Amino acid sequence: MAGSRYQYVKKFELPDPILPGTFMVLRIDGHAFHRLSEVHKFAKPNDERALQLMDHAARDVMNEYKDIVLAFGESDEYSFLFRKSTALYNRRQAKIVTTLTSLFTSSYVFNWSRYLPDTPLEYPPSFDGRIVVYPSQKEIRDYFSWRQADTHINNLYNTIFWALVQQGGETTTQAHAILRGTVSGTKNEMLHSRFGINYNTIPARYRKGSVLVQERVCSLCSWIFELPPASSDDLASTAGETPGTPQQPEQAPSGSSKQKASKKAHALTRIELHHCDIIGDEFWDQRPYLLAE
Ligand code: GTP
Ligand code: MG
């Protein structure tokens, strides 16, 4: 009702732009997942089904928002890195946080029965979300190193803790007491000597977390569509696959003149899941575009 005497209240809605020319990281974290994991009897210390469900929700977010170039997940959290120059929703903070957190949550619920078919969802889970802005590549590298180091620290602790309880017969209080003040070398040694577990043989998913990357696959393409010159929006033009069905850019349907096959190298991407190291240089050196404009 334009021009009504009530309309002035609209002026109280102040803009909340994120600083241009900075990197944005959105971190989504499960709310009270200690309870959710107990109620739904998640395996301890890691429930692969629940972690795969998190990966699925994160992939759905990346499929919808092509400006996300990288995501890292562990436990009940996922961090999303946007390309530096993203203009998503005019960089309006609340719009980005709420819309993406909402999409992540609805995907988590929507796909729950696919990953935990024998475990009915007892109540609606929720996630919080926040955006942190970083000025340079250094902080982005350090941010993701921080999250992956956290994954390792938590997983090592949880692995030995639950081994002490489930296999060693200790109470949870005793297990906490045994581990209090121990360094990682001691935990590794205890895992090996008491339980015969070599920490390095534990699945990489648990040790390294999940790394979802908009991988550039143009070097793999021999026959692809003729496309306009790659803009940043084009970069994710093939990223709509579902898990287990990577897109095949080389399979060009025939019929249209615009679909004339060509050998031009275009920046096609697809989302790939890794459980690899992202603290060292190798991961980033192989993918300089992640931290480009
Ligand atoms: P808030 O985030 O502050 O709301 O609390 P939270 O209860 O979600 O705890 P936090 O995010 O710090 O940690 C996540 C919790 O989720 C862990 O402490 C576990 O209790 C639970 N969790 C996450 N992944 C798994 C899993 O694979 N197995 C089990 N058993 N629990 C998990
Ligand atoms: Mg949480």
TrEMBL record:
UniProt binding sites for GTP: 29-34, 75-76
Cofactor(s) the protein needs: Mg(2+)
All residue ranges annotated as the Thg1 C-terminal domain in the record: 138-280
One GO term of the biological process aspect: tRNA modification
Sequence positions that bind Mg(2+) 1: 29-30, 76
Domain tRNAHis guanylyltransferase catalytic: 6-135
Enzyme Commission numbers on file: 2.7.7.79
Catalytic activity: a 5'-end ribonucleotide-tRNA(His) + GTP + ATP + H2O = a 5'-end phospho-guanosine-ribonucleotide-tRNA(His) + AMP + 2 diphosphate + H(+)
Residues holding Mg(2+) 2: 29, 76
Keywords noted in UniProt: GTP-binding, Magnesium, Metal-binding, Nucleotide-binding, Nucleotidyltransferase, Transferase, tRNA processing
Pfam families: Thg1 (PF04446), Thg1C (PF14413)
Cofactor note: Binds 2 magnesium ions per subunit.
Described purpose of this protein according to its UniProt entry: Adds a GMP to the 5'-end of tRNA(His) after transcription and RNase P cleavage.
Similarity comment text for this entry: Belongs to the tRNA(His) guanylyltransferase family.
Protein name as catalogued: tRNA(His) guanylyltransferase
Organism annotation: Postia placenta MAD-698-R-SB12
